[in-house]
């Protein structure tokens, strides 16, 4: 317990750093994921191509490599931002590819007749997608989206290697102070467990009220 009680503020800063990364990157991932999912099912060929390239490139790129590309590459083009913001961009873009595919799979579960009926009433593609297809698809994608955001929370640990304050990075300071590495990692694991269980609980509630009955 000494590791936690004597370094509670250090653990607290790391915990809050991980929470912030998770929340902000989740927002980026959901927005971009929704946009790319719309592109993937768009009747416009160039949009479909853009969505396909986005998903295939990001899903097949190691996250650590993406961190290097964003944190070290963007400043070369004159875009200088705090490292935490770079980490949010890297995490959000990477996760958006998985969110996109989860949403697209949900869209594919909606009968094609629903969209055809909407178009026969004169609704545009965007109106059909937002008012008819997505509300139905949303119910079936709650579990996979929740699992993806849980993975995002755990992936945020990579940010610590790039001078971003987060939970896993606290082990470096504690190790230098001579604390038992086992207990150091046990309390780090507890912090991640709190975050992931909270996300899981939120999505379980969402699935209970809006999910597809099985």
UniProtKB/TrEMBL annotation:
Keywords recorded for this protein, A-Z: Amino-acid transport, Cell membrane, Membrane, Transmembrane, Transmembrane helix, Transport
Superkingdom in the source lineage: Bacteria
The keyword ATP-binding is annotated on this UniProt entry: no
Gene3D superfamilies: MetI-like
Major site of localization recorded for this protein: membrane
Topology within the bilayer: Multi-pass membrane protein
Pfam families in alphabetical order: BPD_transp_1 (PF00528)
Segments crossing the lipid bilayer: 21-41, 53-74, 81-99, 181-206
InterPro entries: AA_ABC_transptr_permease_3TM (IPR010065), ArtM/GltK/GlnP/TcyL/YhdX-like (IPR043429), MetI-like (IPR000515), MetI-like_sf (IPR035906)
Domain ABC transmembrane type-1: 15-203
Location in or out of the cell: Cell membrane
Family named by the database record: Belongs to the binding-protein-dependent transport system permease family. HisMQ subfamily.
PANTHER family: AMINO-ACID ABC TRANSPORTER PERMEASE PROTEIN YHDX-RELATED (PTHR30614:SF37), MEMBRANE COMPONENT OF AMINO ACID ABC TRANSPORTER (PTHR30614)
Name this protein carries in UniProt: Amino acid ABC transporter permease
Species of provenance: Streptomyces noboritoensis
